[in-house]
From TrEMBL:
Catalytic residues in the record: H256 (proton acceptor)
Binding residues for glyoxylate: Y138, R173, H256, R259
Stretches with biased composition (Basic and acidic residues): 174-183
Keyword Nucleotide-binding: no
Name of the protein this chain belongs to: 4-hydroxymandelate oxidase
Annotated FMN hydroxy acid dehydrogenase domain residues: 2-361
Binding site for FMN: 81-83, 110, 136, 164, 232, 254, 287-291, 310-311
Record bears the keyword Flavoprotein: yes
PROSITE patterns: FMN_HYDROXY_ACID_DH_1 (PS00557), FMN_HYDROXY_ACID_DH_2 (PS51349)
Taxonomy of the source species: Bacteria, Bacillati, Actinomycetota, Actinomycetes, Kitasatosporales
Native organism: Actinacidiphila guanduensis
Keywords: Flavoprotein, FMN, Oxidoreductase
Family classification: Belongs to the FMN-dependent alpha-hydroxy acid dehydrogenase family.
UniProt region (Disordered), positions on chain: 174-197
Length: 373
């Protein structure tokens, strides 16, 4: 086989995106923090793992539907929140929203979107009135600003909030520093931040990261909304346990695509212990490095209910707009169902953690050992 034959759709769209994007914007999308070790580890962790198929289980065709907060019967691949889609394509977040709705996947609207969450949710619902949209939120130091953002998400019809907790300070992005990319170009803005309390007339507030936030702030948020709240950026099992005690509706295991703590482990490596700590009380999602159905199924076998994808969506968007995002999502969903079938699973719940082993000579002794991972 020639190299090209097995290259895959995502690699193709990534190359097309790289050829089209302003190199500074490409670096913003692709880059991570520090030496980009956490970024690299996300994909490497999946590459180190193999799936052990089960045979003759009479599983029938895979049913992929899963229940997520505010999204019953949805697909096990969701669109992770990523900033600034209009730098990738003129249609920006509207293209992403339409493609996610068409694919039947949850769209997580970023607080740092270049389109308002209201416009995004309307675009998704124009494609599918039942489309699920979540709103990702950085808790702001000023409570009234956070609450104004929550009201916007509620009014947009969002069905859950995703609070990103891994950013007490903004990660040090080596490529952005080198490129001096620290502001959106003229004509673009973080539209959700327009007209908030304290914003200049007609202008936007900056998104603040705060190291002063604590569990009490999360609790106050939960008391101020009826929406389910997921906590994103959890890697320590003790934090996952605490979050469940605090009544969160879901946990997102994530190192922020390697853009925050460079010394963080891969999301896939942190997942099993977080899943153990959560013990099925709420859904656990994983994002970081998911590039194939095999990666998604590996995460599902290790205890995730669903996975999120960040950069692949941006590659599709930059390469081909709405069609590109649609191709990425359809491919990942189809590949996930296909790999489930090959593993002998009739659905995500049929997978066992014993079906995931480390590659290499040290891998096989781990088979079947609970907690070998
Ligand atoms: C360009 C870019 C922008 C991002 N913006 C946000 C954001 O605004 N809020 C957030 O919680 N996470 C953000 N993330 C992190 C993603 O939600 C997700 O954790 C990560 O991209 C998953 O890894 P993957 O890109 O390998 O799929 C961003 C990631 C990228 C690559
Ligand atoms: O780049 C990011 O990862 C991110 O989360 C972000 C947050 C605010 C503004 C721009 C990007």
């Amino acid at each position: 086989m020639t190299g090209g034959a097995a290259r895959g759709l995502l690699a193709e769209l990534r190359e097309k995106a790289a050829a089209r994007l302003d190199p500074v914007h490409l670096d913003f999308y692709e880059g991570g923090a520090g030496t980009e070790r956490a970024l690299a580890e996300n994909e490497r962790a999946f590459a180190r793992l193999a799936l052990l198929p089960r045979v003759l289980r009479a599983a029938g065709p895979p049913r992929t539907a899963v229940d997520l907060p505010g999204a019953p019967g949805t697909q096990p691949v969701v669109v992770a929140p990523t900033a600034f889609h209009r730098l990738a394509h003129r249609d920006g977040e509207l293209a992403t929203a339409r493609a996610a709705a068409a694919a039947g996947t949850v769209l997580t609207a970023s607080m740092a979107a270049t389109t308002t969450v209201g416009e995004m949710a309307a675009a998704a619902r124009a494609v599918d009135p039942a489309a699920a949209v979540w709103f990702q939120l950085y808790l702001q130091p000023e409570r009234e600003v956070t609450l104004a953002l929550v009201r916007r998400a509620e009014e947009a019809g969002c069905s859950a909030l995703v609070v990103t907790a891994d950013s007490p300070v903004f990660g040090r992005r080596t490529r952005d520093d080198r490129n001096r990319f620290h502001d959106l170009p003229p004509g673009y803005a973080a539209e959700n931040m327009r007209g908030l309390p304290g914003a200049p007339p007609g202008g936007t507030r900056d998104i603040a990261m705060s190291p002063a936030l604590g569990w009490a702030d999360l609790r106050r948020l939960q008391a101020a909304t009826r929406l389910p709240v997921l906590l994103k950026g959890v890697l320590h099992p003790a934090d996952a346990r605490r979050a469940v005690e605090e009544g969160v509706a879901g946990i997102v295991v994530s190192n922020h695509g390697g853009r925050q703590l460079d010394a963080a482990p891969a999301a896939a490596e942190a997942l099993p212990r977080v899943a153990d700590a959560v013990a099925g009380h709420v859904p656990v999602l994983l994002d970081g490095g998911v590039r194939s159905g095999s990666d998604a199924v590996t995460a599902l076998a290790l205890g995730a209910t669903a996975v999120g994808v960040g950069r692949p969506v941006l590659w599709g968007l930059a390469a081909e707009g709405e069609d590109g995002v649609a191709r990425v999502l359809a491919h990942l969903l189809e590949d996930t169902a296909h790999v489930l079938a090959l593993c002998g699973a009739g659905g995500p719940r049929d997978l066992g953690r014993d079906q995931v082993v480390r590659r290499g000579p040290a891998g096989l002794p781990g088979i079947g050992e609970a907690g070998s991972w």
